[in-house]
Amino acid sequence: MAHLTLKGINKIYPNGFHAVHDFNLDIERGEFIVFVGPSGCGKSTTLRMIAGLENISKGDFYINGKRANEMGPRERGVAMVFQSYALYPQMTVYDNLAFGLTLQGVDEDLIDEKVKRAAKILGLTDYLDRMPRALSGGQRQRVAVGRAIIRKVEIFLMDEPLSNLDAKQRVTMRSEITQIHRETGATTIYVTHDQTEAMTMADRIVVMKDGYVQQIGTPRELYFDPVNVFVAGFIGEPPMNFLRGTVKDGALTFGEITFDLSGKLGADAAKYEGKELVFGFRPEGIVLGEQENAYRVPAGVELTEMLGDNTNVYVDIADKKAILKVDPHDTPEVDSRIVFSIPYESVYLFDGETERRI
Fold first, then answer.
1. C-alpha Rg value of the chain to the nearest Å
2. H or E element at residue 349
3. φ/ψ of residue 118, rounded to 5
4. How far is CA 291 from CA 295, 300, 321, 345, in A?
5. 285 within 8 A of 294, measured Cβ to Cβ
6. Average pLDDT of adjacent 10-residue blocks, the chain of 358 residues
7. What's the rounded Cα separation, in Å, for the pair 47 and 158?
8. Residue 214 exposure: Cα atoms within 13 Å on the Cβ side
9. Which of 140, 185, 266, 288 is 20 to 30 A (C-alpha) from 33?
10. Same domain for 201 and 61?
11. Residue 99 maps to which CATH number?
C-alpha cells in the first residue's frame, strides 16, 4: 500500500492550455479515491500525471514521501486499467494474465499459482483457455483488471474502466472491483464521469470542473454538504432542483411563489436583501401535501416515470422545471395540480453570483 501526496499540481500544455490547476490531495495507504466530473474537467490528465504518462508542469508528487516527478511509470509501481481493454488478441486469457509476470522473469510455477488465484477471484477459471474475442465485454474487462491485480503493485489506477459495459455489467463489475480492492489493499485511484460509480465505490471523492477541484469528501459529505451549485447538481440522481430568485422583504420570489427565508435563515435573512439566491432541493427531499416547518409549493404535473421502487414526477413550478421522487403508490396523474412541501432542513441556499453555499 502506498501513501500519495499531490502538492500544487498543474498541467499546462505547450499551446498554453491549462488543463489542471493547483491540484492538492493527500491519499492514505489503501484508500479508494475516485476522481469524478464531466468530460474535459482534467480528471484523466491528473491520473496520467500520477502514472507518469504525462509530465507535471508545476508542483510536486510524492510516493511514500519520496518525490516522484521524474520517475518513470515502472519506477512508480503502478498498474493501470483503461477504458479500452487493451488485451492481446492472439493470446488466451491465461497468457494475457501471465504476460506481465513472464516479462519480469517470474518462475512458471509461481505464475501459474498467481494466474489461477486471480482467475478464481474474478470468476474467470472456466475461461482461461479462451481467446479475448470469445468473451463478453464484462469478461474482457475482468481480464484487464486481473492483469493489473496479478502484479501485486501498491497503486492501482483505473481510467473509466466500465464505460464500455452495459448497465447490468457495470453494476456487477462495480461490486467486483470494490471486493478486489478490499482483498488486495492497494491504494486505488479511479476516474469516472458517472457519479453513481463514485458514490458506491469511493472512500473519498474528488469532484472536478474545468481543471479545478470543486470539493473533496466522502460520498455522504458531498451528498449532504455540497459546497456549491456544481457539486450539489452533479452528485445525486436525479440531480438537485434549483430555483433562482431575488430576496425582497426577507422573502425569495419565483414568479407568483414567495418563500419566507426566516424559516430557513432566521434573523440572517435580512443580510441577503436585494440579492439573487439559488434555492435548491433534492427530488427525494420532499413530501406530497402540506407539512409544518416546510415550504409549500403548488405545481403542475407534466410527466411521470414509474421506476419500480419510486416514481420520478416532472413538474412545472411557476414556469420553472423540477423533478420529484415519490412513492409509486402516491404517483399523481399527468396534467393534475399538486401541492408538495420541502422541509426547511431539506433546503439548500446558494449565493446567486458566486454559487457558493450559504
1. 25
2. strand 347-351
3. -65, -40
4. 8, 19, 22, 13
5. no
6. 95 97 97 96 96 96 96 89 82 92 88 89 90 89 83 87 81 85 90 94 97 98 97 95 94 90 87 94 97 95 95 95 96 97 96 96
7. 8
8. 28
9. 140
10. yes
11. 3.40.50.300
Whether residue 198 is found in the same domain as residue 313: no
DSSP letter string, 23-80: EEEEE-TT-EEEEE-STTSSHHHHHHHHHTSS--SEEEEEETTEE-TT--HHHHTEEE
Helical segments of the chain, H only:
43-51, 73-76, 93-103, 108-122, 137-149, 167-184, 195-201, 219-224, 229-234, 262-265
- Of 182, 216, 234, which residue sits at a domain end? 234
The C-alpha angle with vertex 213 and arms to 232 and 184, in degrees rounded to 5, equals 95
Select from 117, 42, 48 the least CA-distant residue to 78. 48
Residue 358 lies in a domain: no
- Residue 131 and residue 128: Cα distance in Å, rounded? 8
In a domain, 356, yes or no: no
Count other Cβ atoms within 10 Å, centred on residue 196.
15
Choose the final residue of a domain: 186, 210, 234.
234
Q: Is the dihedral of CA 81, 83, 125, 94 positive or negative?
A: negative
The whole-angstrom separation of Cα 140 and Cα 122 is: 11
Task: Answer yes or no: is 108 within a domain.
Answer: yes
Range of the domain at 342: 241-351
Burial class (CB in 10 A: 0-12, 13-18, 19+), 266: exposed
- The DSSP letter of residue 357 is B
344/198 same-domain check: no
